[in-house]
């Protein structure tokens, strides 16, 4: 066997090892990535939730109401309670706000004496109609889909991406 | 006896070269107290590994049990509060040690050629440690954990294009819930430890190949050279002893915090991150509207890119700080910003009511009306009327409101008097009741 023949053999064997390693890596690696990521991207079916009689809302004073909804979180089915803010304006139109601040998703509260919503995380302020009055929040409070049936208020609970000027559903 | 065992092993395994590689590495300029921080960091990492493994004996990574399992460790397990305290404060200790270690390397210009790789691996180790801190914070599943993680993940979400997909991948689904907790647990206890360990070995391997940098003054470096063993080892040991004593005393004196159980519907909680993220949290308050992304994405990326690239940005010969004014200025500027924001934040956090003022008013009202004259909460008050310890779990907001307005309309024959509260008082009292949960 001369030297160049030995060299060629080595290169070939190196290639064999490399190809086998790549095959095993791909056969395990690709499923692992899918296993980790794909279940997380599935969307849940959203449904309407009855959150109480419309008549209880008073114009101009927001009300924190519980929205009880069932979520399927992987294998776990639970009912969770989120509180949403319902606001009736002067004309009687009703908006329901998601309870999460549009800045980075903390909970905010109503300050009755100042007549504004306030998020203590990074000091954002919102008007009764959801508009930003001050602070780092990039967009108004997120409204949730609402409808009224037989005098009851129905809401779909969703979350939106925080921190962007555009309202993007998660 | 010990000597004989070593001899016996040495005869078979030829340990001489290994000992030389591990302990006899010469340090230019000799041993010094300024070199102790790397060893302290390594020590804290090992302490975290050991205490973490033992915490996982009792911990259960499920949304229903995580909180209670931590409570069990804290209240019922012998030495549980001490072990968790070590883990909690050890994490902070590790951050401080890393900070000082980086500062020393930075000041000494020890990242310069030929030690670029050592520095790069070090920066990756820093990032992994921050990831450890962030993922570990969620595990107790208390209010702090839940809401701080909510904010943290949302920050990642502000990344353009891939942000929303990334949020769901990190959360493991649409909500922050059971899937998030198991993910973070796996990351914190399996993925990150292995990764970090491998990189620590790599870091030390590179250090041993290129050797420590020593003082910036060439003459001083050439003056003497001492092996790592025994003087530097002794100095490291003393420093580690002091660091451990500090952390252990903290673990004994200040129990690791555990707030109320995570409650996605109680939005009244104001989350505050761990102190080493505080300066950054404060910074976010000033970046409004379109500038927000500068804080959540641009600055952190630039910061870490800058760190990675440092050995190539600062490539002039010579490590003397005075001959590197730009780099030193940048470092000092960074420290100034960090400490300014940190103190601003501490000041604000100290003056922040961590719970909703309305809940506090409700609590005051409860005392004012002498509700404890009939009701009992966690053993306090009369047991004449229903126990309210966990009323937040059993009654809804609406039920409570109606009931306070007109008790008999909701519970016929109730002996509860009607207090004629106004709307605000009604809602305060209800908010307080809703916080009473398991
Ligand atoms: S999350 Fe509300 S101001 Fe930042």
What features would you describe in this structure?
The complex is a heterodimer of chains A (170) and B (438). In chain A, 23% of the residues lie in helices and 33% in strands. Chain A has 170 residues and is an alpha+beta fold. Chain A folds into two domains: 1-42; 49-155, Rieske [2Fe-2S] iron-sulphur domain (Rieske Iron-sulfur Protein, 3-layer Sandwich). Chain A has a four-stranded antiparallel β-sheet, with no helix packed on it. A three-stranded antiparallel β-sheet of chain A has the order 1-10-9, with no helix packed on it. Chain A has a three-stranded antiparallel β-sheet with strand order 2-3-4, with no helix packed on it. Chain A is elongated and about 95 Å long. Chain B is mostly helical and 438 residues long. Chain B folds into two domains: 24-350, Up-down Bundle (Cytochrome Bc1 Complex, Chain C), CATH 1.20.810; 357-434, Cytochrome Bc1 Complex, Chain D, domain 2. Helix content of chain B is 66%, strand content 1%. Chain B has 19 helices and two strands. Chain B has helices at residues 2-13, 16-23, 37-55, 66-75, 80-107, 116-138, 143-157, 163-171, 178-210, 218-223, 228-253, 275-286, 292-313, 325-350, 357-368, 391-394, 397-405, 407-410, 423-434, and strands at 26-28, 225-227. A two-stranded antiparallel ribbon of chain B has the order 1-2. The longest helix of chain B has 33 residues, at 178-210. The mean pLDDT of chain B is 90. At the A-B interface, helix 1, strand 2 and strand 3 of A face helix 7, helix 8, helix 12, helix 13 and helix 19 of B. The complex binds FE2/S2 (inorganic) cluster. Residues 101, 103-106, 119, 121-122, 124, 135-137 of chain A line the site of FE2/S2 (inorganic) cluster (FES). FE2/S2 (inorganic) cluster (FES) binds next to loops of chain A.
């Amino acid at each position: 066997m001369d030297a160049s023949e030995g060299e060629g053999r080595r290169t070939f064997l190196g290639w064999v090892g490399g190809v086998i390693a790549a095959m095993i890596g791909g056969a395990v690696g690709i499923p692992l990535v899918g296993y980790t990521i794909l279940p997380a991207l599935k969307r849940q079916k959203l449904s309407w939730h009855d959150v109480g009689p419309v008549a209880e809302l008073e114009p101009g004073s927001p009300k924190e109401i519980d929205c009880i909804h069932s979520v399927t979180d992987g294998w776990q089915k639970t009912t969770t309670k989120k509180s949403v803010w319902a606001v009736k304006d002067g004309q009687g139109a009703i908006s329901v706000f998601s309870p999460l601040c549009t800045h980075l998703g903390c909970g905010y509260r109503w300050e009755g004496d100042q007549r504004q919503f306030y998020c203590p995380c990074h000091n954002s302020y919102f008007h009764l109609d959801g508009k930003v009055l001050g602070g780092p929040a990039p967009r108004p409070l997120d409204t949730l889909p609402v409808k009224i049936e037989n005098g009851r208020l129905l809401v779909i609970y969703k979350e939106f991406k925080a921190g962007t000027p555009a309202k993007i559903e998660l | 006896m010990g000597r004989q065992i070593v001899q016996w092993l040495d005869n078979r395994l030829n340990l001489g070269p290994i000992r030389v590689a591990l302990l006899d590495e010469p340090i230019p300029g000799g041993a010094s107290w300024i070199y102790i921080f790397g060893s302290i960091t390594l020590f804290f990492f090992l302490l975290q590994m050991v205490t973490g493994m033992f915490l996982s004996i009792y911990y259960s990574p499920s949304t229903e049990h995580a909180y209670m399992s931590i409570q069990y460790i804290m209240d019922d397990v012998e030495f549980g509060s001490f072990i968790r305290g070590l883990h909690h404060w050890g994490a902070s200790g590790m951050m401080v040690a890393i900070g000082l270690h980086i500062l020393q390397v930075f000041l000494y210009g020890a990242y310069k050629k030929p030690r670029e790789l050592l520095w790069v691996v070090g920066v990756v180790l820093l990032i992994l440690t921050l990831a450890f801190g962030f993922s570990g914070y969620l595990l107790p599943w208390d209010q702090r954990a839940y809401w701080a993680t909510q904010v943290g993940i949302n920050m990642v979400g502000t990344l353009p294009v891939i942000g929303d997909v990334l949020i769901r991948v990190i959360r493991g689904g649409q909500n922050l819930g059971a899937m998030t907790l198991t993910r973070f647990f796996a990351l914190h206890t399996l993925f990150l430890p292995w990764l970090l360990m491998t990189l620590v070995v790599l870091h030390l391997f590179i250090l041993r190949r290129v050797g420590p940098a020593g003082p910036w003054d060439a003459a001083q470096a050439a003056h003497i050279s001492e092996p790592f063993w025994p003087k530097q080892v002794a100095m490291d040991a003393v420093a580690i002893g002091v660091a451990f004593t500090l952390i252990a005393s903290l673990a004994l004196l200040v129990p690791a915090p555990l707030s109320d159980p995570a409650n996605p519907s109680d939005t009244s909680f104001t989350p505050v991150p761990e102190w080493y993220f505080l300066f950054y949290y404060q910074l976010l308050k000033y970046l409004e509207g379109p500038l927000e992304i500068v804080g959540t994405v641009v600055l952190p990326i630039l910061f870490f890119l800058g760190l990675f690239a440092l050995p190539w940005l600062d490539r002039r010969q010579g490590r003397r700080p005075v001959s590197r004014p730009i780099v030193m200025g940048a470092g000092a500027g960074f420290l100034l910003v960090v400490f300014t924001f940190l103190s601003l934040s501490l000041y604000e956090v100290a003056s922040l009511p961590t719970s909703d003022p309305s809940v506090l008013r409700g609590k005051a009202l409860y005392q004012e009306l002498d509700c404890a004259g009939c009701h009992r909460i966690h053993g306090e008050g009369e047991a004449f009327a229903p126990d309210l310890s966990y009323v937040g779990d059993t009654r809804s907001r609406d039920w409570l409101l109606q009931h306070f307005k007109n008790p008999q309309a909701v519970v016929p024959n109730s002996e509860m008097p009607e207090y004629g509260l106004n709307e605000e008082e009604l809602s305060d009292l209800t908010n307080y009741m809703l916080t009473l949960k398991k």
